[in-house]
Amino acid sequence: MLFEYILLILALVYIVNYGIRSITKHRYQIGIIKSLGGSSLNISSIFSIKTIIVGFFICIVSYFGMVYLNGLANDILIESFEAFINRKIYNIDIIKVRYDIIAIDLTLVMLITAISSFAPILVLRKIKPAYILKAKE
User: Fold this and answer.
1) Rg of the Cα trace of the chain?
2) Whole-structure pTM over 0.85, yes or no?
3) What 3-state DSSP class applies to 97?
4) Residue 44 and residue 23: Cα distance in Å, rounded?
5) 27-71 residue pLDDT tens
6) Rounded CA gap, 96 and 99, in Å?
């Protein structure tokens, strides 16, 4: 279960970092769209959809990581425990896959992704096209 939470925390850090980086990277394009009459809501919907798609792919990767890497982590723990006690162990699982916990984790990732996708709205309202276009010259 600890392994699942580590993956969850890594996914959340990546989502937040992706959102911040995406806005700062496209600051000039945002300024141009706003100067052409694009609203902050239209621009933020682009970034929100982009962030939700990234969150969805993170859920897929996290699911496969939780399910398939669980066996690898289990084997490593069993081997080290066998070396510690100097005996062979058969038919034991130290880490068990619980699909209900995985479903809750992935739901939390998508929920937090959806919530974090609203952050661009706050940042985009502060961007003034005149300042961005003036700074580019």
Assistant:
1) 22
2) no
3) coil
4) 9
5) 788 878 888 888 877 887 887 888 888 888 888 887 888 788 888
6) 10
